[in-house]
Amino acid sequence: MPKGNCALCHEFKELELSHIVPKFVIRYLKKTSFGAIRNMDNPNRIVQDGEKHYMLCGACEDLFSAYETKFANKFFYPYMIDSKKEFNYDQETYYFITSVSWRSLYLDILDFVKNHDAYGVDMNTLDNLIKKEKCMREYLLKKNSEIDGVENHIFFFDDLLDVEKSNAELRPHATFHRGIIIYTFFNKQLNSQATITNMMGIILFTLYSKGPEEYWENTEIHNGNGRIEARNQIVQSVCGNELTEILDLAKQKLDNISENQMSKIVDKVKADPDNFAKSKAYEDLMKDLNLDQS
Ligand SMILES: [Zn+2]
User: What are 132-158's pLDDT values in tens digits?
Assistant: First the structure.
């Protein structure tokens, strides 16, 4: 294992290869995929590799992984397997969301600094992101019990949303339910900054700056006890638009799949149609096709 400074505790130690999106999500996506059809599920390369970086020492990895396991058992599997819609959350849920967003924010800041022209990042945005990263790091290390000026939200990509009705051709079910993506975005004009993580339809948002246009309903996870439901949720403005951006991006990637790849996928399905009909990929494909007709 390579040595370096751990991104969280800053100690010079052996670094582990960390997943940016928690590995239980990547494992579940692979487990519920139909062999090589994964290419069609979501052609985004990040998904298949489950982007990894040497960034945390063993102790910090272990710290995060305890919260991941709890979230997986309390939220992720019950939502995916039993279609559970109501959840009680607590401070550990807040910690988990913070830890996931922080990992991306840390790497995204490095990327923004290196390529600021390409991203069009201004100094005010960068300053705020760096400030928030520091506060989140201290909270994650348990030096502080609160994070100033940061909000965590969970948005469940469930049935019958405006975004999906108006974008049937973008295959919203297949994109969100069969996809994994994480990144930090910002809008200078509307003064919003956030990290978004799609974990197969459970979408985490951490806001570092909340512009006046942002409107959220039934999505916030406070740093304490509460209840959240996968229904009647609203996300608008910059963060809401980001959901449409993800659909557009997935559509572009799908359009770019070569004919050769496509015929391999078709052959796979033809060779084992019964198994394909039972797969989650098929279920989402049918939901999207039904949207087209309604
Ligand atoms: Zn560490």
Answer: 999 999 999 999 999 999 999 999 987
